[in-house]
Amino acid sequence: MRRGMLDQLIWWGSIAVETLLLVRGLQTKLLSRYPAFYLYIVFVLSQSFLRLYVYHWKLFLYRYTYWSTEFVGILVGCGVVFEIFRVGLRAYPGASRMARNSLLLLFLVALVVAAGNAANDPRWWAEASITEIQRTMRMVQALSLFALVLLFLHYSIPFGRNLRGILFGYGLFVAGSVIWLTFAYTGSGHFRNSWFYLYPMSYDISLLVWIVHLWGYRPNPQTKESAQFERQYERIAAATKRRLQEARSYLDKAIDR
Amino acid sequence: MIGLISALTVGLLLLIALVVFALRQESTARGIHSISEFPGDPRHSGEFEVCPPELVARIFSREDWELILQTQSPCLERLFLQERKRIALLWVRQTSRDIRQVMRNHTEAAKQAADIRFRTELSLFLMYIELLLMCETLLLLITTVGPPRLERIASYVHELSRQISYAHEAFARSSAGAATGIPTSP
Hints:
The complex is a heterodimer of chains A (257) and B (186). With 257 residues, chain A is mainly α. Chain A folds into two domains: 2-220, Rhopdopsin 7-helix transmembrane proteins (Up-down Bundle), CATH 1.20.1070; 222-257. Chain A contains ten helices and no strands. In chain A, helix 1 (2-27) packs parallel to helix 9 (189-213), helix 4 packs parallel to helix 7 and helix 4 packs antiparallel against helix 8. In chain B, 72% of the residues lie in helices and 0% in strands. Chain B contains six helices and no strands. Chain B has helices spanning 2-29, 53-56, 63-71, 74-110, 118-144, 151-178. In chain B, helix 3 packs antiparallel against helix 4 (74-110) and helix 5 runs antiparallel to helix 6. The termini of chain B are far apart.
């Protein structure tokens, strides 16, 4: 009885926050700025209603519905990752090029690893459970996000409040999914039960992050600095070179005897 | 089992990266990183004021240490090692800080360069990480072993810093070649 109530609470709570998020997105016109993200929210919202319907009226179809919507969710979520990349690096062609090449390299490595595994164990695709396939897909998504976050950190890309919220919320959700999918079918008893509640709760945390960060429009900080850097690029490069040479001569004096 | 461990590692790594990212963004928004990225800033004029080169030149040398050993005074030996260690730690921290600053300036410029080279950037980044790791190792070794026994490692750090400088020069040259329309400052 208590479990059922908790289920319902998590379910309806998510639906309420998703609806609020969409309403605020429309009011603040954020929907047109981050279309892929709001498409994802629309998808999750309709998925929730579909699952609710199937759960109550066609329970025998629930498992099938759950996993197929999860797969579509991953694909729609890739749009969110692309949007983070596109909007976040719009003003930084150098960092954007680095991100493109890094992601390409990552996908190539993932493809080679997958092909290698398939060659070693050709029955894997046939025998792999839905959870395993989903975990692999989420892992690739998590790795892409990880690479992007490292790049943002390395190049000190400033994010506005909105985009920061989208990245943080979605990243939390993806990381939670990977961890959940790792433990969901390996743990046992109480452990597994608690994970079945922690997963939707981790999504609720993401929803809270989104609602806080996307309540109003906040632009990405960039314009002034980027224009100045574009004009000063050669000077900066020359100054960096001079400083490195100074550092080198300093080290020369320190170590060469 | 390996699949499970790698999945868990990826999930946790992403979580950590996100937390670091959020903290960094917060601190940037609050203006904690007040150090300017502009090379013209007087704080980054490039002078190394804390340790004069003449003083640092002998930090890792064994000559002075051997001289002190000849006095056969434990008190003097202890004092010598304490002072040497303090200066050596200061030097490494300063070197590390300077390397970070150089890289920060570089990324600040490179992130807007449309003609950026992936391989150059990657090798520069790897060298930068290696250099920082070496500085951290050096700090650890100075604390535990003492400066007079670290001559070779210090030389290696020096060699790496030269490599990073050369790689950056190549990057600057190629970028300068493409940006011919931009006037060069005096």
